Amino acid sequence: MEKGGEVIKLIGTHSSPFVLRVKIALNLKNVPFEFLIEYLPYKKTQLLLDSNPVHKKVPVLLHDGRAICESLIILEYIDETWASCGAPILPSDPYDRAIARFWAAYIDEKLFPPFRAILTTEGEEQKAKVGEVVAALEMLEEGFGKCNKGGKFFGGQTIGLVDLVLGSLVSWMSVMDGLAETQLLDPNKIPMLAAWAEDFCEVPAVKEVLPEIAKLVEVGKGIQARERAAAAAASSASVTAIGDPTVSS
Amino acid sequence: METGRGDEVKLIGMWASPFVLRVKVALNLKGVHYESLEEDLPFGKSQLLLDSNPVHKKVPVLLHNGKPICESLIILEYIDEVWASAGAPAILPSDPYDRATARFWAAYVDEKIFASMKGALITESDEKRKALVESTLVGLGSMEEALDRRSKGGKFFGGESIGFLDLALGSLVGWLRVMGKACGMNFLDPDRTPRLAGWAESFCEADPIKDVLPDTDKLVEFRKTLQAAMEAASAAAAAAATPATPSTS
Q1: d(CA B5, CA B16)
Q2: Rounded to whole angstroms, what are the CA distances from B84 to A78, A105, B161?
Q3: N-term to C-term CA, chain B
Q4: Is the ipTM of this complex over 0.90?
Q5: Residue A124 C-alpha, separation from nearest chain B C-alpha, in angstroms
Q6: Cβ separation of A77 and B96 shorter than 8 Å?
Q7: A59: Cβ–Cβ under 8 A, 6 or more apart, which residues?
Q8: What is the pTM of this model?
Q9: In this structure, is the dihedral angle defined by the CA atoms of residues B111, B112, B116 and B117, taken in order, positive or negative?
């Protein structure tokens, strides 16, 4: 049930997994919202800069003009504000809530950085990053076994916080698999998570907003190209510096 | 003053850790009696710590009736939820937007201020230290603005009583003083950040804090111990990495 006359907007991009989490959460709660697209990294709108002056990042949720930033914080805000709509995102028991928050933080701090770095590294360095991601997923496989209480999701019978946080990366995992020749959700290594990922993507509130893999591949290739160009520019600048007798090392 | 029926509360910690301090103060605020288990960091980690926090192997860990809760900000939320009653003050506000704001700034304290401060204390490069000191000051400047912008009055970020953000930032005051001594400056200078300087004094004098706040001189000594341990560790690592000179046959 939405409260009458509320204005809800989400500033984001189509490719950001952090934005995707929030889209799914709003969908789960049946909260209609206006999606304001940013064309990152080329340009940031004045609205984004005004709404998130500290980090200048997406997602930003605007609720009746007030800005809420940082995806995990937005998810808790949505759960608290629309508590009577749909299933809860966080469990009710304080210990279970602490565990959910723990794994959500783990995913963002330990899994996401090497995961993102798969796009900006090559060769042995990339292999090492893939290794870190696989190790984190194996840790989460164990975590899943302890959280799911017999259900299909981290949240049990329904999608919860950890499902949203990890689930928002599943589409990008297919992209990474293609670019780095891996199989991150390997059913032989992490059978529970492999099954979970399929179940997650089938949930209607998720299916409706999952990005197209082909479009993510384009975004991924764009990131790779920019990284290579930056690396090339940096190394030619340092070569120039070494060769130039007027520049001191 | 409640502990709950037959509650057993233990805190695995270390006297110099600001993250542990947050939890001690929170438990004090709620009037919860707990057993303090001191780790001998950086020299060793107890089996209890390794078993209770296998993922991160860090303090603090709260053990409530044997169940471990890890990560200081997550522990604070747990404490607030478990020991919520008319007698004990709330650590987080009740309004979802105010909660999001408190969580946002607490995350900022950890990601921006603590990270810069730690980096500045550890780095051997003068240039890097300068940049990290500057980054810490920028972060504190943002907190001054945040304190200024609060609509509700009171000595603390949480209003009249100590709240989530007070605990997050207040726990760093001791180490900011250590850094101040190392750099020859006052990080909580009333000329630069008048509100924050006043807030820091109020925080350190408040009842739940003053008995558990570590002495700044002891922290300075501890920092020397840490530096010596780090130097010994890197010397050992360098010696291990140096290949043995092959003998000529």
Answers
A1: 31
A2: 22, 24, 15
A3: 78
A4: yes
A5: 20
A6: yes
A7: A10, A11, A12, A16, A18, A19, A21, A22, A69, A71, A74
A8: 0.93
A9: negative
Average pLDDT, chain B: 92
Q: Is B124 on the interface with A (CB under 8 A)?
A: no
pLDDT of residue B5: 55
Rounded to whole angstroms, how far apart are CA atoms A36 and A20?
13
Q: Is the pLDDT of residue B138 over 50?
A: yes
Cα–Cα dist A181/A230, whole Å: 24
Residue B248 C-alpha, separation from nearest chain A C-alpha, in angstroms:
34
CB A186 within 8 Å of CB A176: no
Q: Check CB contact of B74 with chain A, cutoff 8 Å.
A: yes
Residues of chain A with Cβ-Cβ distance to B81 below 8 Å are 94, 97
CA distance A237 to chain B (A): 21
Q: Which residues pair with B67 in a beta bridge?
A: B64
The whole-angstrom distance between residue A182's C-alpha and the CA centroid of its chain comes to 19
| pLDDT surpasses 50 at A2 | no
Q: Is A192 helix (H, G, I), strand (E, B) or coil?
A: helix
| A·B CB contacts under 8 A | 53
Higher pLDDT: B168 or B43? It is B168
Cβ atoms of B179 and B117 closer than 8 Å: yes
pLDDT for res B88: 80
Using a CB-CB cut-off of 8 Å, the residues of chain A touching B78 are 94-95, 97-98
Residue located via tokens 């937005």: A74
Tell me whether residues B71 and A101 touch, CB distance under 8 A: yes
Chain B partners within 8 Å of A66 (Cβ)? 97
Between the alpha carbon of residue A131 and those of residues A109, A176, B21, the distances in Å are 16, 13, 35
Dist. CA A239–CA B226, nearest whole Å: 39
Residue of A nearest to B76 (CA): A98
CA distance B44 to chain A (A): 23
